[in-house]
Amino acid sequence: MGMGDYSPGSVWYYAPNKIAPIIFIVLFFISGSIHAFQTIQHKSWRTTLLLPWAAALMIAGFAIRVVGAYHTDNLTYLIASVVLIMSGPPVYALINYFILSRILYYIPYLAPLHPGRVATTFIGLDAVCEILIGQGAWRMANSSMTTAQRQLGAHLVTASLSLQCALFSAFGLLAAQFHYRANRAGVLTKELRVVLYVLYVSATIVTIRCIYRLVEYVMGWDSTIYKNEVFFWIFEAVIMFLNTALLNAYHPGKRLPRSNSVFLAKDGVTVKKGPGWDDDRPWIVTMFDPFDVWGLISGKDKKTQFWDMSDAELERLRAEKKARKRGVVAGLLDPFRLWGKNGYIGKHIGRKKEQRTVDGDVTETMKGAGKTTDAV
């Protein structure tokens, strides 16, 4: 039986291949293990920690697909496999966002966008994609649902994939703009070039996979693409394994600094340690105003430009940042940093208290002066 032949009673339409998913389980397991080892070796937790997780999602999806291949009439296996496998590629895209963010932290004076805002903006929108996929994939794969319900699922997945394609395009333009600026400034090292080229290839692979899924869901579950398993193995399994293998061969953690505080001076040679390029605005504000238009208009953004400071000034800023650093418990209890003297809400309350204290002192002083005058 071929990979596109109809199998009576199969919720997959065809009889799923029993050997191919086992092969990819082994491949992704090896790849994920290497990712975990390299992440530990290079201590690149913030940048590449999700690589093993992305591989784990693919492994789980393929494992359920193996079981489904022996129980082709069981809809649960089909839905679970589809949702898990479709959740893996967006995580790989998420890793690309982290990689670009780390590059921008390293050369902040050429960043077209605040590095932290790259993370909050793209990750927030990527989370929307994951929610849409989770809600749409199981509806579309569930053949027991009505045509209208399955069509709704297809629309949700289509919306998610369209948003992903738009995100990847914007991401590519952002990376290319930085690449152009760094190349003109002559500060693009060999290692950074490698990371950027790998980033482009990885983003292209994820985009191709996204387009395949978009075409599949636009054409519907009665299309040739949906009913032929070979398309799935080429444009989902093989292409995503090439992506994870690429990130193994050219692991970004090996070529990027471990800390966001480390940056390259404008001479393109000297590596310095600064306070890190923090964004003190509430995270929800960074979502809706990633370019900090108000900061650019008011000139507030210029106060954060530490790369032109002397070593003594950098040391002072690092000390101030260390003094403001919160403990693990405080971070868990108040993850959005709302309270405390440096919290988004707490600091405003503190200012009001200070103002009331000052006003009270002024009032008392004036009363005292009035009594003295009366006595005279």
TrEMBL record:
Q: Which residues form a coiled coil?
A: none
**Predominant subcellular localization, coarse grouping:** membrane
Q: How does it sit in the membrane?
A: Multi-pass membrane protein
Q: Does the keyword Isomerase apply?
A: no
Q: Does the record bear Membrane in its keywords?
A: yes
Record InterPro entries: RTA1
Give the protein name, as stated in the record. Answer: RTA1 domain protein
Q: Which organism is it from?
A: Polyplosphaeria fusca
Lineage of origin: Eukaryota, Fungi, Dikarya, Ascomycota, Pezizomycotina
